[in-house]
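Case study 2.
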Amino acid sequence: MHRHISTTPFGRRPMMLGHIASQMTAKAVSPETVAHKWQVFQHIREARELIGATDRSLTILNALLTFHPETTLSGNGELIVWPSNEQLAARANGMPPTTLRRHIAVLVDCGLIIRRDSPNGKRFARKDRRGEVEQAYGFDLSPIVARADEFRELVEAMQTEKKAFRVAKERLTLLRRDIVKMVETGIEENVPGNWGRVTQTYQAIIAQLPRSAPRQLVEEITQALHELYVEIREVLESFVKLQNLDANESHSGRHIQNSKPDSNFESEYGLGEKDEADGNAAETDNVRSLPRRDLPLGIVLDACPEIRELARGGAIRHWRDLLAAAEVARPMLGISQSAWREACEVMGEQHAGITLAGIYQRADQINNAGGYLRSLTDRAKDGKFSTWPMVMALLRAKLDAQKQTDNLDRGRSNDTAEAGDRLQVSDSLLKSLQRPKSR
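Prediction:
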């Protein structure tokens, strides 16, 4: 006798090609195939997003599996269960009927179960005289057996992807931390290089990273950061090697961008004493007696205190803070971006920032700050300008002004002047400032 069980949905429920595909997969299962239903369910639960199932639909699937008496499902066994909606809802934590029907449809569409509808749409089983199930109408669990290997492979692929994603994010975090610390070291240790450009490049790369990024994008950004990391590392290592070979200031074999340390000096009266636009502020002084090393940040801030008001929070603790304040002062002084960029390339960012701080300090005495900066840049190209005498001139002017104030306030109470407003310099620096000029 030929037995036929309908696989088309009952009533007005639509039939889709996906249902046919699920039925074909279930029909092709080998009779020797065996699957542990709770292990397969665990794989389905972990890979539910890839399968298309929802949490509520998996609650129903869990309930359906409880209606099958065997833990191990085989391809040649009876895999149809026929609970009523009331029984199924009770085991699905009291799910409402409309929600129950909606999520049963999700399980069918995902190919996790197959409907085996009776002529009237009811679920039941017909048994023979011995009590054996002869024919059953309900939900066929055979896709659980047929697709067991597929679900396991999906879980393994997800675990592999999660691990790769975790490694990529860890590498990204480490590179971000290392680059920031190396840039800070390069600025604080006065390593020649265009650290402003490096910072801008780093920020441009990080700006491509959204709040939630796929692994492929994270790996692309990580690769870009790694290339920047290698570039910075080579600059720092080259500088350390050259310092070990020669204690004197020297050029790094490979710079991030051309940066020219100062070897000659301009007159300490070269800032604002003559016509600034023509750049003829070059009354040469015997400034080679000044120490041939970089200016301490504290001395620069003593000479140019006005630049502090442009710093974030009103405090300048590192050279990068001074450069950030200089970027704010530049448009206020009417200095073009091209003039500032050329000054950074010729003098180096640190000395260009000191120069701009000095110009900002004497802004009321300079008619054309942009033209004056270009003039100083041209002199620096010829080795005729240095920030040392410029800062010394500002310090001497401040000391002279302070002496005049002290003479006027002589005889008054010392409590009227706050000690924090007075300039404190070392004896050796004071002697340098008091040396007579050579005409």
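Strands lie at 34-36, 72-74, 80-81, 114-116, 124-127, 133-140.
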